[in-house]
Amino acid sequence: MNYQVAKKTFASWIKSGITPFEILNALRKLQVVGINLDQEDDPQVIFESINSTGVALTNSDLIRNFLLMDDHNQDQLFDTYWIPIETLLRRNNSNNDLDQFFRQYLITKKNSTIMERKVYFEFVDLFKKQRFTHESALQELKTYAKIYASF
Fold it and tell me: DSSP letters of 10-40?
């Protein structure tokens, strides 16, 4: 399944003008890390604290992993909701528009200004207060993403 996803992704990159040589150079920089967790470890907390590149994780990275990690329907939720949201809002391999969407979504839902550095924490707070399931949150985000993308 990972092979099919990678094949589809590479094909879309080539179609958009990225050369196979550029893809290969990027892959040469790829590092894969495996971390064994104990039963009491929280994978989300571990994910939030790991960042070997020194580049801060984006709010959309954190939100995606919060919504998809540990869910038994992770693949279905990713394909049905996250990929369409990302397709609507991600530009030039950048999370900037996606991050701005989450901030605007929270401003709308909470009816107050949200500082960018607090977007993830405010999202988790809203998730808990609204008693969202992972799927219901993603359904709502997909609906809002369609509206946001039209602007």
Answer: HHHHHHTT--HHHHHHHHHT---------TT
